[in-house]
Specification:
Elements lengths: L5 E6 L3 H4 L16 H10 L3 E7 L6 H13 L10 E3 L10 H7 L6 E4 L6 H9 L4 E4 L7 H14 L3 E3 L7 H10 L5 E11 L2 H4 L10 H17 L6 E11 L17 E10 L6 E12 L9 E7 L2 E6 L6 E4 L3 E4 L21 H18 L4 H4 L10 H16 L3 E5 L5 E3 L1
Parallel strand pairs: 1-2, 1-4, 2-3, 4-5, 5-6, 7-10
Antiparallel strand pairs: 7-11, 8-9, 8-15, 9-10, 11-12, 13-14, 15-16
Helix pairs in contact: 5-6, 7-9, 9-12
Length: 422
């Protein structure tokens, strides 16, 4: 692996990047953030160099720095949380501040994008055209056309673009994928993922406006399913999507989301073998952000994959590790995602969590691309690259269109590998 430290700009200063949420009454499972914490630790380990963070408002940098000082530097030994902010403190809010952050990076650097879904394409394209590698949260884009545009741009510029599909790095999910290869033709897949109603306060600025719960949560297991099918005989592909959504909770007090905001969305997807059209499979992906408060987990998440000769069932939320504290009730803990407890020396010890590994893998891959030790085309077969994840965006957009147009939406593949919604 190349030893050159990677300069990174973290685009988006919200909960997943910094862990900072202005409304402190909202309980989160990411109170220390993920992206920022991981990047600070990668810098401590010598893999990352300069770090900048770009948001929209300059007014919260002081609170974010205080949060880092108290909750990260004050908890973990040898952790430096310094960063360059964009826009600069004391300057007006600037939705294009990410451009200055990207322009300050040398070619071959990298950015992470954890911003509202509607902004992903513009930010990623701006970075790609300047020779910057990109890690973008799921969904990569809201439309198939925008996703394909990023695939094309990344190939033209020779940069690495990875979608942050961290479930692929969960040891249970990865082991299940390996076993699915030997179970024969695909038959049925069912997934459920939720977050409590309190998250609607965190997402108030965009819930039902810029995106929906299917884009936010169904994106996880749609990718897992498509990933599982990569090694399954039959060359299965999605052919039709029919969506259904429930309403009534998110649009009512105290959440008051915009009219039409769905509480729960289910996508019924027909899959078909390209090698044998008589072999068909069915998938149902369900996501909700109106789950009960106090369920013992922040996010319910589980799936069942059924094939001709067996099945794989994984509950990622209920791992058999439960902690009960007076006044806080009973909670199921998932340390395989992010482990926030320091080790015996006081150092951050979460390097084995799949939330950490997903970002670490991106940084290491960028270094290898810069060093010329890997070919970009070879990465599509083993990592969630922008090209490898086209299927997920096709299904997600088809689901949104199915809800809006009140019909089933078809997905067509051309002989040259093209994608089209009909």
């Amino acid at each position: 692996m190349a030893s050159t430290k990677l300069s990174v700009a973290l685009i988006g200063s919200g909960e997943y990047t910094t862990g900072y949420v202005p409304n402190t009454t909202v309980k989160s499972d990411k109170k220390l953030g993920v992206v920022g914490l991981v990047m600070f630790d990668l810098r401590r380990r010598g893999l990352v160099g300069d770090i900048s963070i770009a948001g929209v408002s300059s007014g919260k940098w002081g609170a974010i720095k205080d949060h880092f000082t108290q909750n990260i530097e004050g908890v973990y030994k040898d952790m430096d949380c310094s960063f360059e902010p964009y826009p600069k403190p004391g300057t007006p809010s600037d939705p294009d501040a990410y451009k200055a952050a990207i322009d300050a990076l040398p070619r071959g650097s990298a950015i992470t994008i954890f911003t509202p879904d509607t902004t992903h394409h513009a930010i990623a394209l701006y970075a790609i055209r300047r020779g910057i590698h990109v890690l973008v949260t799921k969904p990569a884009t809201k439309t198939l056309a925008d996703h394909l545009d990023l695939v094309k741009a990344a190939a033209e510029e020779g940069v690495y673009v990875q979608v942050e599909m961290h479930k692929r790095f969960d040891p249970s999910y990865a082991d299940g994928k390996n076993k699915a290869k030997s179970l024969g033709g695909f038959s049925f897949f069912q997934s459920y993922m939720s977050q409590p109603k309190t998250q609607l306060a965190t997402f108030a600025s965009w819930a039902g406006v810029d995106s929906d719960i299917s884009y936010y949560l169904n994106s996880h297991h749609i990718d897992v399913h498509a990933w599982y099918l990569e090694g399954v005989p039959g060359n299965y592909r999605p052919v039709r999507v029919t969506a259904s959504g429930s309403t009534g909770i998110a649009i009512s007090p105290p959440y008051n989301c915009v009219a039409g905001t769905e509480d729960t969305i289910s996508l019924l997807v027909d899959w078909e073998s390209a090698d044998d059209p008589t072999r068909k499979g069915t998938a149902v992906y369900t996501a909700s952000w109106t789950a009960p408060i106090g369920a013992g987990v922040h996010s319910e998440q589980h799936f069942r994959y059924i094939a001709a000769k067996g099945e794989v069932t994984i509950n990622q939320a209920r791992r058999g590790y439960n902690v009960t504290i007076d006044g806080h009730g009973s909670n199921d803990i998932n340390p395989f995602y992010m482990q926030y407890s320091p080790d015996s020396e006081g150092l951050f010890a979460g390097q084995h969590g799949y939330g950490y590994i997903s970002i670490e893998k991106f940084v290491e891959t960028c270094q290898k691309v810069n060093a010329g030790t890997v070919k970009l085309a070879d990465l599509d077969a083993r990592l969630p690259t922008i090209k490898n994840t086209i299927c997920s965006t096709a299904i997600l957009e088809a689901g949104r269109r199915s809800l809006d147009e009140k019909r089933s939406v078809g997905i067509e593949r051309s002989a040259d590998g093209g994608w089209k919604l009909v």
